[in-house]
Design goal:
163 residues, single chain, 5-stranded antiparallel beta sheet, alpha+beta, 3-stranded mixed beta sheet, GMP Synthetase, Chain A, domain 3
Length: 163
């Protein structure tokens, strides 16, 4: 049911998002202590503003209600994917070549199911990650989850005598 719902929302959201020069990154639908949450992630190379989120939320929320595709009460959240952005599509892997990524696979590759390193390449349905000084080729079909692994600049604390 959730997969069908997400696909229905995607069909409604995609034209709204792209008409504003944005990209639809991901859609999540889940239940928590507040009830059902429908979360939409949007992005733009120059960054997503609060106005982008508000506009998409208003238009999409109205359309979902008019089409009556969600049979229960829900909370609609629209946001940017953040610094640890999820990567799902091949074009996203291509876009983020050179970045540090975390990848979990559904079947072990060289005895590993988890990789963190530099995304070196993406072509022909595979990605190449450099980690621990070694290159790993991973078929996109085996990727269970992947995201940017934002590296926070090293914070150095100065002692009183250094200030």
């Amino acid at each position: 049911m959730v997969t069908t719902l997400i696909e229905s929302v995607r069909q409604l959201a995609e034209p709204i998002v792209t008409s504003q020069g944005l990209e639809l990154v991901d859609i999540e639908c889940f239940s928590d202590s507040k009830g059902w949450i429908l979360r939409i992630y949007i992005d733009k190379e120059s960054g997503v503003t609060l106005e982008h989120c508000r506009s998409v939320s208003e238009q999409l929320g109205d359309l979902i209600d008019v089409k009556d595709i969600i049979p229960y009460r829900y909370i609609l959240e629209v946001s940017s994917p953040g610094v640890n952005r999820v990567i799902k599509r091949e074009k996203d892997f291509v876009r983020f070549c050179g970045e540090t990524v975390k990848v979990k696979v559904s079947e072990p590759i060289d005895g590993r199911k988890s990789f963190q390193g530099t995304l070196r390449d993406c072509k022909g349905g595979t990605i190449v990650i450099e980690t621990d000084g070694k290159l790993f080729t991973i078929p996109l079909t085996l990727i269970a989850k992947a995201n940017i692994a934002y590296q926070f600049p090293e914070l150095t604390k100065k002692s009183k005598k250094d200030r």
